[in-house]
Design a protein that fits this description.
22% helix; 507 residues; FAD/NAD(P)-binding domain; alpha+beta
Length: 507
Amino acid sequence: MSTDLDYVIVGGGTAGSVIAARLTENPDIKVGLIEAGPDDRQFDEVLKIKRWLELLEGDLDYKYTTQIQPNGNSHIVHSRAKVLGGCSSHNTMIWFKPLPGDWDDWANQGAAGWEGASMEQYYAKLPNKHQIVPEQDRDPILPDWIESAVAATGVKQSPDWNAEPFSDGAGFLDVAYDPDTGIRSSASVAYLHPIMDTRENLHVILNTRALRVNLTGDRATSVDCVNELTGERITYSATKEIILCAGAIDSPRLLLLSGIGPADELRELDIDVQHDLPSVGGEILDHPESIIIWELKKPLGPQTVMGADCALFVNRLKQDDRPDLMYHTYQLPFTLNTERLGYPVPENVICMTPNIPRTKSRGRLWLLSKNPDIKPAIDFGYFTDPDGYDEQTIVDGLEIAREVAATGPFKDWIKREVAPGPKITSRKDLSTYGRAAHHTVYHPLGGCKIGAVDDPTTVVGPDLKVKGIDGLRVADGAIFPALTTVNPVVGIHMIGEKCADMILNGH
């Protein structure tokens, strides 16, 4: 293939897959999709959603770690996928359309045109196959858990999460997979598999890592890459645009390695500054979650989609019409952090994971070296918000989970509470445990914040164009200026659809 392309997309993950498929619907547009990982079609553990847990910290995982967290857990490994489809090939594909208020938060921060009402059109375009967990995949404990969650909290029972906006609820999740085959409906499965071997204007370039975006004057013109298998260096040129879709860690990281970022910090690392943009790497976000674990009186059955099939949303503070506390159930011993604290791992367990839908803590990402093989420093600033909102949300979450466990019929399944254990009862002690045992829901976001062009904290404007540079956009989880209440993967699909729409309308 020619290295001269109309559009070069860096990252064949969730948004990148969407944009590549949409742009190449026009046969006159030539697109190169650069993905550092391999083709997902060769990995059964990727395609079969029930096997997602096998992927964590495996060969297809970048395994990013965090800086020391004085108020939280410093031992978290942030899984980021190195495979076609990105994190939609690596996660549980829990399918939540972002609530209208989530997009409205973006618009209120200067992302004009991203209001909830205007984003509905992009949700309607998504082709992914998804449905509420079907009857044959419902473990018998889960209807009892739902009944107890509703009785203990007063939330709605079994809402259709995506039919209309919700403020609370307990029920089976909507999951993007094929119940007949067990294959996830990832961005690559839904968008690329049907076309990648037949659409001549789409060039999927696998096992190839982007090292640097090159500018000619104030315009992005090419991307230097290396083939991870052969070591061959190659430069791909874009006559129209380069779109970064490398994810919330690697899109800001690539900008920094390219000399696009805070000039003084880049010079200290001996990186040639191409464009001074101090906001790159700022305001990174995550959904932290803690965990409560019970040992059960009897084993669970084999019926499950992916071992985390139910959710509970609670609007405990009623500050607006969106929930402010969320739980997944885990019908498996998700004990990555409680084992480290000395808790046992019983054979038969169920877990609830209170997490903070819209955390107030913020962090940042920066480079430690100009060597692209050295991972960046990542500091999410867990539980550093000045009013203690995040900490109090986790404590409330543990207390409410105990109320669910004390309510029948779910309580009849429980033999004992394993973690934090019945001796930990005060809010102070629950806070200490909750923050020590907290984990991530694997939702790192931010670092290339969207918003008004004149806002010094933003990296891209509402059109996703990097400020001060022509021909360069960012379109992935890095642009989030605020967390969505729900899992972000659907929102990132929608970002891809909107980005493609803006490009095609301007093409």
